[in-house]
Amino acid sequence: QRAIRRASALATLEFFGTAVFHLPPPVYNLIETQAGFFLCYPEDSAALNCVSVSITADQSVRSRFMDNNYSLGSVQVALSPQERFEEYLRSRKMRFTQERRALLDHVFSQHEHFDANGLLEELAEKFDRKSRPSRATVYRTLTELVEAGLLRKFPVGGRDVYEHDYGYPAHDHLYCKKCERLIEFQSDALVELRDQVARDHGFRVGGHRLIITGICHQCSSAKRRTRRRHDLI
């Protein structure tokens, strides 16, 4: 059984894991099947006119087209996040306490970007006062998770943001300065350009981090709609 949904917001679409395209609304049908997502030509859902896609979009698009746990996929790893963290703690003669376990399980229960304050609010809703990790434990454990290679921490918009690192593919971000959304994307063309620049300078690449700042499509559209209403007055 298929569920055909109308695309009505900007999405970042990755075709066959290579090129990234930005598609303006609202002209494509997004078809969800058990085999995954397919993008079809307007008003036509015939299989011959559909392309298999993986989608990364801002939160408004994700909430309409997929569950909140959507991610770019995963990289095969030998240990689970719990096993990796336990190994890290043992190497430093530290205990895998109930508070650390509860925090780790919560952070890896879904894929999302978050900051410490947002995490504290989520924990306050999920746990009662006696069982939830303390504020000091949260900040300390986040540092440990970064050191263990489980989370990545980076500054954006005047705050420190965390995301999954262990078992998650390398990617870059678009950051909307208005609504503060972070949009993940992958681009082979960008990696090729990076490697070419490195070769030109005799530089050995160890990795990179790119955050493109600007205004997302949803915020730009809202601004234009507001201006049009104002012009009519």
Brief summary of the model shown:
The chain has 233 residues and is an alpha+beta fold.
Properties at a glance:
7 helices, about 230 residues, single chain, alpha+beta, three-stranded mixed sheet, 11 strands, six-stranded antiparallel sheet, disordered N terminus
Any overview of this molecule?
It contains 7 helices and 11 strands. It is an alpha+beta fold and 233 residues long. A 6-stranded antiparallel sheet has the order 1-4-5-6-2-3, with helices on one face. A hairpin with a 2-residue loop joins β4 and β5. The N terminus is likely disordered.
Average pLDDT reading: 76
Q: What would the principal axes of the Cα set say about the shape?
A: flat
Summing up helix and strand content along with how strands pair, one would put the structural category as alpha+beta
Residues in helices, as a percent range: 25-40%
What profile does the largest beta sheet have? 6 strands, antiparallel
Radius of gyration: 21 Å
What is the number of strand segments? 11
Number of helices: 7
- Biggest sheet: strand arrangement: 1-4-5-6-2-3
Strand content: 15-25%
Q: What is the succession of H and E elements?
A: EEEEEEHHHHHEEEEHEH
Q: Report, as a whole number of angstroms, the end-to-end distance.
A: 48 Å
> Which parts are unreliable, with pLDDT below 50 for 5 consecutive residues or more?
1-28, 41-48, 53-70
